[in-house]
Amino acid sequence: MRTELCERLGIEYPIFAFTPSEKVAAAVSRAGGLGVLGCVRFNDAEELDGVLNWMDENTDGKPYGVDIVMPMKIPTEGTSVDLKAMIPGEHISFVEETLRKLGVPPLPDGEGREGVLGWLHSTARSHVDVALQHRPVLIANALGTPPNDVIEQAHEHGVLVAALAGAGKHAASHVANGVDIIVSQGYEAGGHTGEIASMVLTPEIVDSVGPDVPVLAAGGIGCGRQVAASLALGAQGVWTGSLWLTVAEYDLGSSDAIQRALLKAGSADTVRSRVYTGKPARLLKNKWTAAWEEEGAPAPLPMPLQNILVSDAHNRMSAADDPDVVAMPAGQIIGRTNEVRPVAQVMAELIAEYEETVTRLEKIRG
User: Fold this and answer.
1) What confidence category does residue 80 fall into, taking pLDDT thresholds of 50, 70 and 90?
2) Which of 60, 183, 253, 358 is deepest in the core (most CB within 10 A)?
3) Are strands 237-240 and 281-284 parallel, antiparallel or unpaired?
4) Could you read off the pLDDT of 114-172 as tens digits, one per residue?
5) Rounded CA separation 290/285 (Å)
6) Cα(349)–Cα(345) distance, rounded to whole angstroms?
7) Beta carbons of 160 and 137 less than 8 angstroms apart
8) Topology of 1-75+120-249+352-366 in CATH?
9) What's the order of all strands across the beta sheet hosting 281-284?
10) Does this UniProt record's set of keywords contain Nucleotide-binding (predicted)?
């Protein structure tokens, strides 16, 4: 399974695992893949710094990456514009009334946190600054091409830059702006995703960027056969995410409602919606997402206003311990995540099935 990208990044297998859990990311790296820590949940640089210190000490010296959320164009934050003041009252009322109807209680007094600031451009920049004080080999941007100065900053530290793309023209634009690796994000993927399925998208992007730019296939990858198919389509590796949401190392916090929802979900139990961030993202389909589709529901706000609007609701739903109302990005591959397994076992199964698939295809070729 070794590709040129493995040599370039110093990893054994071209299996990239995006996860908000440092424990999962570290375990993937120790198992020979590249764990990529999602930074959007960190509201301040000190918190992220502490977690990356832990990553440095718990990856056995093996490489890891980080994932940020940064638009190329700087939004209105940092000016006199008050983002919270831009949220219409009807949206605030809708969220509160929906939570009441779904039986989601308020957080206990003294609990809760400020809205997730990692979606803001300024916070994402601080994530880059902190990350480059550690030893990631890759910085990935979930919103496409990061600003040119951020790419230059990463390259000065010898760190490669990856960006997600949902169309060939977007991938070509990323490369023209200095991005090193393209993540071909198919329609099946969890989180922000476009409208083209990975079987069509991956070869389209491989052709659009040419043979010198490595492409990672993403979306609908959860077994070794799918890894083999991705490499057959021209990718140099796979970018996985939802696969790791039910592993034993995933930190459940105070509630396991999200994991219970994921374990019982099938491949048809997701929906592509703007209700999570303001941009189209694939989520678990449940009573919360259904409420936004009802007649009279307001249209989701653009990013980052939608994030600010629903951040407290997400915290309340997570604490409610009800799997029918959790807000969670998840791809269609969750139909395969129906048991809790350790990261090492998942990696071993991916590799073994990949090898079996390649052997079977070689026999077919004769």
Assistant:
1) very low
2) 183
3) unpaired
4) 545 556 778 889 999 999 999 999 999 988 899 999 999 999 999 999 999 999 999 99
5) 7
6) 6
7) yes
8) TIM Barrel (3.20.20)
9) 191-192, 281-284, 270-273
10) no
